[in-house]
Amino acid sequence: MFELIIRNGTIVDGQNRPRYEADVGIVHDRIAAIGQLGDAEAQLVIDADGLVVAPGFIDVHTHSDAILLSQPHLLSKTMQGFTTEFLMLDGISYAPVSRRTVHGWIYYLRSLNGLRFEQYTGWESIGDFMSLLDGKTAQNVATFIPYANVRTLAMDPGEQCPNDYQRVDLQNLVRQGMADGACGLSTGLDYVEQCFATTDELVAACRGMRVEQGVYVTHVRYALGTLEGVKEAVEIGRRAGVPVHISHLKGRNEEEVEALIDYIDLVAVNEVDFTFDCYPYMSSSTMLQYLLPQEIWRDGVFGAFARLTDPSLRDRFQRRLDTLDLSSITFAWMPGRQNRQLTGMTLEQYARRTKRRPADALCDLLIEESMAVLLIFHSDERGLEAEFLAHPYSMLGSDGIFFAEGKIHPRQYGSAARLLGHYVRRKRLFSLEEAVYKLSGFAATRFKLKNRGVIRRGAYADLVIFDPETIADNATFDDPHQLATGVEHVIVNGTPIVLHGKPVSSALPGRYLRFGAE
């Protein structure tokens, strides 16, 4: 007897093979049978007639690190079909930390994750942090090693180059992260601490995971330009002997897109084991502090806050702002109730409203909000993302940032559904089989999540059942907190977490998925 049978579904198996009709029988957390199961009985039977049965989707780039501690079922993601969230991207997160560094990280990350100081319970290692989620969430979690956290443990703030002892410490911390189950090392080379890391330093750090073949996952050094940043990433992977994965790859215009695609096809894939992720929007989102001159981080996070009043720093900040179209950048979220009416307003409108120079107005806002201001960078370009979405080396990473209020980027609520609805059904950019592969099997293979991302006997029963004719994203920039539609059932480790389009609130079957482990 099965615990669950899915009958009459169209199987899209996550391996980019042709769809077929079959029943799926589940026992405990595994797929036990695939075929015509006839009169077989089960405790629960789901009729999937007219629906697609696919492996649960894997989001390889999220910022769900903290929200899952307080909201174990992240509906904005599961209602798109995501069953696994990758954490600790862009080289910044809540572990590894020490008593010396943890408060700086909680302070710095408030506009990404919103963790409060009182939520810190004493964890230090990646293993400690992930144990807080293992078996306590609806969806599975996997992780990378955030390099800035590693760097702040081994080096003082703003140091340019590690000495021999620090280099050993960096490598040992990377090895410890891999031993804790991480899938590789993540960097965000425009963010705090990592902006000071040299190419040689990153090569040395990556050598700490060469034996395991952990993946170097990077938000590239955009200060160099996107193409030059990707080239640096490939150099790091080649010299360190590790695979390379580029986070949220996109181009600003047709010329840059063409140059990036040419480099990937002609050089990158021939020099290293290369992949990348992207999301189905041109507009992006990050913290306001990202725009500050990088030198502000030389004295650490709290030192940076103190420097926000420095006139010379404000002058340099203004020169940076002068290169941007402030009418295309909007406030997405900030914690202060007195400023929440600013969400949706452009930086240009805000500066005019304050009747001040933009740098002064924004630095004072950062002081008022303790540096926790989230932005959206809107783009008028249309269709450029399609080149990356359709590329054979790409998979989906939403880069989603969740807050329950504000005008956050709709990618948090819509990425997978938009891929399947807009780009598969409407635009016919690629086949349903290809899209499901990008959402599941490709990611599982890339990051060595064994027996995930595939429908086959013996694989873990992480499944999404959706209507290919109706699945759609509903979130917009004006109204982002709208759940996707078309996903009927979601199963994690054999346990339904969504049934008939409704969440199963008591179900928390998610696990910590370790690199290369069952």
From TrEMBL:
<dbReference type="InterPro" id="IPR023100">
    <property type="entry name" value="D-aminoacylase_insert_dom_sf"/>
</dbReference>
<feature type="domain" description="Amidohydrolase 3">
    <location>
        <begin position="45"/>
        <end position="253"/>
    </location>
</feature>
<feature type="domain" description="Amidohydrolase 3">
    <location>
        <begin position="414"/>
        <end position="497"/>
    </location>
</feature>
<dbReference type="InterPro" id="IPR050378">
    <property type="entry name" value="Metallo-dep_Hydrolases_sf"/>
</dbReference>
<dbReference type="Pfam" id="PF07969">
    <property type="entry name" value="Amidohydro_3"/>
</dbReference>
<dbReference type="GO" id="GO:0016812">
    <property type="term" value="F:hydrolase activity, acting on carbon-nitrogen (but not peptide) bonds, in cyclic amides"/>
</dbReference>
<protein>
    <submittedName>
        <fullName>D-aminoacylase</fullName>
    </submittedName>
</protein>
<dbReference type="InterPro" id="IPR032466">
    <property type="entry name" value="Metal_Hydrolase"/>
</dbReference>
<dbReference type="GO" id="GO:0005829">
    <property type="term" value="C:cytosol"/>
</dbReference>
<dbReference type="InterPro" id="IPR011059">
    <property type="entry name" value="Metal-dep_hydrolase_composite"/>
</dbReference>
<dbReference type="InterPro" id="IPR013108">
    <property type="entry name" value="Amidohydro_3"/>
</dbReference>
<dbReference type="GO" id="GO:0016811">
    <property type="term" value="F:hydrolase activity, acting on carbon-nitrogen (but not peptide) bonds, in linear amides"/>
</dbReference>
